[in-house]
From TrEMBL:
<dbReference type="InterPro" id="IPR029052">
    <property type="entry name" value="Metallo-depent_PP-like"/>
</dbReference>
<keyword id="KW-0732">Signal</keyword>
<feature type="signal peptide">
    <location>
        <begin position="1"/>
        <end position="20"/>
    </location>
</feature>
<feature type="domain" description="Capsule synthesis protein CapA">
    <location>
        <begin position="38"/>
        <end position="284"/>
    </location>
</feature>
<protein>
    <submittedName>
        <fullName>Poly-gamma-glutamate synthesis protein (Capsule biosynthesis protein)</fullName>
    </submittedName>
</protein>
<comment type="similarity">
    <text>Belongs to the CapA family.</text>
</comment>
<dbReference type="Pfam" id="PF09587">
    <property type="entry name" value="PGA_cap"/>
</dbReference>
<dbReference type="InterPro" id="IPR019079">
    <property type="entry name" value="Capsule_synth_CapA"/>
</dbReference>
<dbReference type="InterPro" id="IPR052169">
    <property type="entry name" value="CW_Biosynth-Accessory"/>
</dbReference>
Length: 378
């Protein structure tokens, strides 16, 4: 039965590393280690014109391998790595903003970097119309990359949504919705998942019937370039959790927004809410848009059979990444730097200064506004 008390009264904030739940453990469970799974989330994968030019080779194809070289190891170590694909694979002619179409090589490199799930419901998914939406799905399927958010037709959505992933003994359902598609409407029979409470309620109810270990809503929402979540984001986050969503991870503003760890005072369960991961890779240079978050969520559960599985957050945290643009580094291509990478010392001074501004602003924001989630530092 759904709770009827006001949602705000049911939660308080606690440290991510101290899960306040009493556990009744049998002698058997003392000897059997819990099952664990690590989820990794990053923000927007974008492809502006300058990125196209930087990746183009003398042979006329595109090489993106340098872009993810310093983050590939971290991505690949996660059991499930998720990113927001903010460009369609619409074929030639390739183009940047405002109507994106990225080369297929961009997707190959994303796969090779270790990403397992790509989110496709965002405001740029219809930049190339029906062809772009359907070709993107075709490419994702051909590379065996799971995706969620857009569909060729109603039948495919019914078959593939919500996205249910089986890994390490866990069953995790993923949802994905966008606030808009820049005024472009999908061409029938194509479907884009929009933020619509009636539809979302049905999808959450469907996911709950599967009895997954977690339901994660990936939301494309909020106001661009605003470092604090809007009232609408906060209210929608509350509503999603009320309906049974376990964790929420957001994108779209192109800047980092704070995150919260909430604990339900009745059930004792914990819920991570990340309002915006910022950009993962782009050509954006406006203040605070040249980097983002890598958010890590580690779940565990007892492997001893019980009527109610004890699924809990073992750890959650984040690290900051910054995109080095060729105009600053004089390198040919764009490169994502973890901000604690030893390679930063090799950057030109102008690049290090830009990185330091991003780090200073980001840490100040998150230290002031985060609740229960801290930066993972080496």
């Amino acid at each position: 039965m759904r709770r009827t008390l006001p949602f705000a009264l049911l939660f308080f904030f606690v440290s991510c590393n101290s899960v306040a739940q009493e556990q009744t453990m049998s002698e058997a469970s003392d000897t059997i280690p819990p099952a664990k799974i690590t989820l990794l989330f990053v923000g927007d994968l974008m492809q502006h014109k300058a990125q196209l030019e930087a990746a183009r080779t003398s042979q006329g194809n595109y090489d993106y391998s340098p872009c993810f070289s310093l983050v590939k190891e971290q991505i690949s170590k996660a059991d499930i790595a998720i990113a927001n694909l903010e460009v369609p694979l619409g074929g030639k002619p390739y183009a940047g903003y405002p109507a994106f179409s990225a080369p297929d090589e961009f997707l190959y490199t994303i796969r090779d970097a270790g990403f397992d799930i790509l989110l496709t419901a965002n405001n740029h998914c219809l930049d190339r119309g029906k062809k772009g939406l359907e070709r993107t799905i075709l490419m994702l399927d051909s590379l065996h990359i799971a995706y969620t958010g857009t569909y060729r037709n109603k039948e495919e959505r019914q078959q593939r949504y919500p996205l249910l992933i089986h890994k390490n003994g866990f069953r995790i359902a993923f949802l994905n919705y966008t606030y808009d598609t820049n005024g472009i409407k999908p061409t029938s029979p194509n479907i884009v998942n929009y933020i619509d409470k009636t539809v979302m309620q049905q999808d959450i109810d469907t996911a709950r019937t599967w009895q997954p270990d977690a339901i994660i809503a990936c939301m494309h929402w909020g106001n661009e370039y605003q470092s604090l979540p809007s009232q609408e984001q906060r209210q929608l986050a509350d509503w999603l959790l009320e309906q049974g969503v376990t964790h929420i991870v957001g994108s779209h503003p192109h800047v980092i927004q704070p995150m919260e760890l909430r604990t339900d005072t009745l059930a004792g369960t914990q819920h991570a809410v990340v309002y915006s991961l910022g950009n993962f890779i782009s050509n954006m240079s406006k203040v605070n848009t040249d980097g983002g978050l890598v958010f890590t969520l580690e779940l565990e559960k007892d492997t001893v059979t019980s009527a109610i599985p004890n699924i809990r957050i073992r750890h959650c945290g984040y690290n900051l990444v910054w995109t080095a643009r060729p105009t600053l580094t004089k390198e040919k291509n764009y490169i994502i730097y973890p901000v604690d990478s030893t390679s930063i010392s090799k950057l030109p001074e102008v690049a290090r200064n830009s990185l330091n501004i991003f780090v200073k602003n980001s840490r100040k924001l998150l230290q002031q506004h985060n609740a229960g989630i801290r930066e993972d530092k080496k």
